[in-house]
Write a structure and sequence with these properties.
- The protein is α+β, with helices and mostly antiparallel strands.
- The protein is built from six helices and five strands, in the order ααβααβββαβα.
- It has a five-stranded mixed sheet.
- Strand 2 and strand 3 form a beta hairpin.
Length: about 150
Amino acid sequence: MRRFVLAAFALTSLAACARSSSPADPSRLSGPLGAEEISSVPVSTAYEAIQTLRPQWLRRRETLSLMDPNSGYPAVVVDNIQRGELDLLRNIRAEVVAEIRYVNARDATTRYGTGFRGGAIEVTTLPTPWRDTTEIRQRRRSTGAVHR
């Protein structure tokens, strides 16, 4: 009986080790998508990158609401600004993405406020010279700062 228990334990241990090294390893699939990983697959948009590398991020997190047919899907946040629904990711070219990460509903609500029942997909884009100067102008307008 003791040999049987030891054999069962050894098989269970081997099976656990084999599962953790498989391509479907949850720790690998839940982490952020970096530019290097995105460029390793033949995709042209952020949506395609997520669909290929982290498809579970695109699924609905709760039951369908008659009032809001998109409830339960993650919202899209680009460079810390809420932008809209998942279809927006089809308009973001993969080569301008620095990082994409999924944020669960609780953390998204803490960071961005209400309306994130399905969590959020945060996209950080690579910096561009024109965007940096546009953001500076927008900050000056919103704060009333005058450039002299």
